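During the first year of the project, the team set up a workflow for recording each protein of interest as an amino acid sequence followed immediately by a discrete structure-token representation. This format lets reviewers and collaborators read both layers of information side by side without switching files. As required by the reporting guidelines, we include two representative entries from the current panel. The first entry is reproduced here exactly as it appears in our internal archive.
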Amino acid sequence: VPIDPAIEPLSRYYLALALSNAGHAAAADQYDRFLRADRRSLQASQWGRELLFLDRQQGQTFQGIGDLLHRLDQPADARKAYDRAQQAGVMNISELIQRQVYTDLRLGAADRAVERVVSRIRAAEEDQAGLELATYLIDQGVDGDALAQRLRDIYLRENRPAGLALAIARMVPPEQSEALLLEHLDQKPGDGAVFEALLTSKLPKGGVG
């Protein structure tokens, strides 16, 4: 009986998974062999469907490779793997960006880390993960005032999106936050989320009652 051609790349994948879970460097090579395997004759095979399912998760595979390379103290190669994961697409982009930012900082590329965070906040203005990344950058020594100013420049240039106003307001001291929200409502009085944020900031810390 002929051997199903999908067995070989599938065995590479599951071997890589086992090696990765055990922390072995050889996992990266097995992942690479899995990804480079010829797919042209596999779609009609008995195991081809499972292989195609794994192929649709290539972004997660590259993310896993990046995690492994970090554990092996190879952050430069980990960054390449994470970038390939971003190109392939992943289920949770926020988790991937967290990994990329950590890697950039580990490699001393703070400017690149800032660019990633600014792009994330700009693309998903009210995403809590983006705001947490901004806080993480500041905790790691990035100039918080400069980061807030970068976001403010984008905010003004792009006609004052409400989400960006809220993001910046969470990053700056209370008096600056209040001034920003008031300024925003002066220009866009119909933005309910900004009004609610301003109202909340005025309430006593313990709430009403």
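The second entry, processed by the same pipeline in the following quarter, appears below.
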Amino acid sequence: ALLREGITKIPPDKGLSLLYQTLSACYVRRRELPIALETTREGMRALATAQHNRWRLTEAALHICAAMGEPEMITEIIEGEGVDACEPFLVSLGDVLRLGLRGDWQGAAQHAQSSRAAVPRFLPLMAAEAFAWLCAGRPDYADQARAGFIPGFRLEEGSAQAWLESLIAVQRDDQTTAATALAAYLGRPLAADEQPSREWLLRLWAD
């Protein structure tokens, strides 16, 4: 209720984008993805002329569409025109997510890899490439993509980067790195009898 009230009072240049992102994330945690998507798109419309971090809402909308298995919605977003036009790096991300939804994981990885030349520090595209290589059965290439993460990047509790780094390490039989990243994702040390596994990580992501 407070977030929704704040949205009506905060101007675009004073952090309105962040309020929409936070509200959408709340709906995602409650698994109310259609409402989360509508919230991000409402924010995109509210910021259509101001452009104050609108791209962050667009990025969130693309990932929500992917989680919902809706490539057509991704297409609708990345093909917007005028004030609804997406930045090129977001169009690339949308293309990668669409390819993944169609099961073309190698194509998704290769497209992300070639697109990253223009935006070498855009973390979501790096992560999308790494995940796509994993799904294509190439954990070695996934690890190379992961190595492009910003040096000194801190893995945080609940972060997709920590989860992905652990999964890549599991697939590469690097249990030390997998355990360190998983502990960061969980926000606690692993117990002596806990060992990272693909099944465990997938269950954690599904939860």
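For the second entry, the following points were noted during internal review. The CA atoms of residues 84 and 141 lie 34 Å apart. The chain is about 65% helix and 0% strand. Both points are flagged for discussion at the upcoming steering committee meeting.
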